[in-house]
Design brief:
Distance between the termini: 53 Å
Oligomer: single chain
Number of helices: 11
Number of strands: 0
Largest sheet: none
Strand content: under 5%
Order of helices and strands: HHHHHHHHHHH
Length: 206
């Protein structure tokens, strides 16, 4: 049985999930108690356990749902038939904003901290976040290459490269606590640079 099959959804599911997200981010995985999560969510422990048989499943679902919601919202705002410069600029902006989000930063740190003894959490985070973004980007790059807009010999690698370009300067400074946030101008600088460098390598030559 998969982890998703062990989770039951009901009327107060989202309420429980929001309470769990708040407590996990406040107290970490080890420090978060089921009693505190139930209290924050405004439900009984019996109700909480009726949705999630254990705390680990709850933690994985908090991470998965947060990242999926953001990815779905981002995809809905992009016209993938537009010119590569437009699509890649929008995609870069979404990647930068997601990376800069304090909630995502908190979840990322928790996942890294717990992944050695809780490997399924690391896998869940990767599948719902980096892997999904990589797959969506590959799909776009493949379509753009088929239309003759881009020339790419290794689409898998190109997608990884673009994501890493979008993380330039910002991600390590956030990760190590050098900065807590960035201005719109700082983000735009990285977005423009990432798109320009990527297109310099992969744009079809006239």
């Amino acid at each position: 049985m998969s982890q998703a099959d062990q989770i039951n959804r009901g009327r107060k599911f989202d309420q429980v999930l929001e309470g769990a997200r708040t407590i996990f981010l406040r107290d970490g995985f080890d420090g978060a108690s089921v009693d505190d999560i139930a209290k924050e969510a405004g439900v009984s422990k019996a109700t909480l356990y009726s949705y999630f048989p254990d705390k680990r499943l709850m933690f994985v679902e908090v991470v998965r749902s947060q990242l999926k919601e953001q990815t779905d919202s981002a995809v809905a705002t992009i016209d993938f038939g537009a010119a590569p410069e437009v699509v890649l600029s929008l995609a870069a902006a979404q990647i930068v904003d997601s990376m800069s989000c304090k909630l995502n930063q908190g979840l990322y740190r928790l996942c890294v901290a717990e992944s050695e003894r809780f490997p399924e959490l690391g896998r869940a985070f990767y599948a719902a976040g980096p892997e999904l973004v990589h797959e969506l980007l590959m799909e776009y790059l493949r379509c753009a290459a088929d239309r003759g807009e881009l020339v790419i010999d290794d689409i898998d690698l190109a997608a990884y490269l673009f994501i890493e370009l979008c993380k330039s300067e910002l991600h390590p400074k956030l990760l190590f606590g050098i900065c807590e946030s960035f201005s719109g101008e700082q983000k735009e600088r990285v977005i423009r640079g990432a798109v320009a460098m990527f297109l310099a390598r992969y744009a079809a030559k006239a």
